[in-house]
Design a protein that fits this description.
- The protein is of the alpha/beta class.
- The protein has a single domain, classed as Amidase signature (AS) domain (Amidase signature (AS) enzymes, Alpha-Beta Complex).
- The chain is 33% helix and 11% strand.
- The protein has a six-stranded mixed β-sheet with strand order 1-3-2-4-6-5, with helices on both faces.
- Strand 2, helix 5 and strand 3 form a beta-alpha-beta unit.
- Helix 6 packs parallel to helix 7.
- The chain starts with a helix and ends in a 21-residue tail after the last helix.
Length: 254
């Protein structure tokens, strides 16, 4: 399938094509990595690509899917993380020169859930510095740009997440929202995004801003894809004091 066709498939469509064995996670991952390499030089949505990790996770997912071992709705699905979500062994900068060398020793809880679901990490995404204020122009990385018009910004602070999904670099991304930081980029980039109910998605291992207002959530190309993401990342975390111990519904069925 041509790169352009792969780039704008939804998660639900990728799942169907995987089941029908018309596409594989390795094919999709390689096509998206090529697209990022070709086009992100103008958009700056990624701070760091995790190409080796992505290919290894894609190969593992492909083996399992071909053997009929399906972990869930994000198995074999590429995604990327706002760079305030901690990733063990991979720098988590918060888009700040103050943390350029910070390498966490443990994954954030939501990343653990994505890994357990067989998802494919493509890299870490631009944000505003520490997910606050607005874009900065004096940092080692330029601010992300809007794929619809690179002279414009994609909103923030989940700027890279909005840009990467809208540009067809990943079918879904994880952002955070304290005062509109998922909803703004989703609106300005013409994609779907949700600030989940408070306490629904663990924030453990995510750089904090305001305890009573911080949320983690997905940005995708459709409401259906948002539901599939929430199915994996939602759920009680006893180590997040704000987490709510309530059952996770079948979001896609809703």
């Amino acid at each position: 399938m041509p790169e352009m066709d792969v780039a704008f498939l939804t998660i639900a469509e990728l799942n169907r094509l995987y089941r029908q064995r018309e596409l594989s996670p390795v094919e999709v991952t390689k096509a998206l990595l090529a697209r990022i390499a070709a086009h992100d030089g103008n958009l700056h949505s990624f701070l760091r690509l995790t190409e080796e990790v992505a290919l290894a996770e894609a190969e593992a997912a492909e083996r399992e899917l071909m053997a009929g071992q399906v972990r869930g709705p994000l198995h074999g699905i590429p995604y990327a993380l706002k760079d305030i979500v901690e990733t063990a062994g991979i720098p988590t900068t918060g888009h700040s020169k103050l943390r350029q060398e910070y390498v966490p020793s443990e994954d954030a809880e939501l990343l653990k859930r994505l890994k357990a679901g067989g998802s494919i990490l493509m890299g870490k995404l631009a944000t505003w510095e520490f997910a606050l204020g607005g874009p900065s122009f004096d940092l080692p990385w330029p601010p992300a740009r809007n794929p619809w018009n690179p002279d414009h910004l994609p909103g923030g602070s989940s700027s890279g997440a909005g840009a990467a999904v809208a540009a067809g670099f990943v079918p879904g991304a994880i952002g955070t929202d304290t005062g509109g930081s998922i909803r703004g980029p989703a609106a300005l980039c013409g994609i779907a995004g949700i600030k989940p109910t408070y306490g629904r998605v663990s924030r453990r291992g995510v750089f904090p801003n305001t305890f009573s207002m911080d949320h983690c959530g997905p940005l995708c190309r459709s409401a259906e894809d948002i539901a599939l993401f929430l199915q994996i990342i939602a759920g009680y975390d006893p180590e997040d004091p704000g987490s709510e111990d309530v059952p996770v519904p079948d979001y896609a069925a809703s």
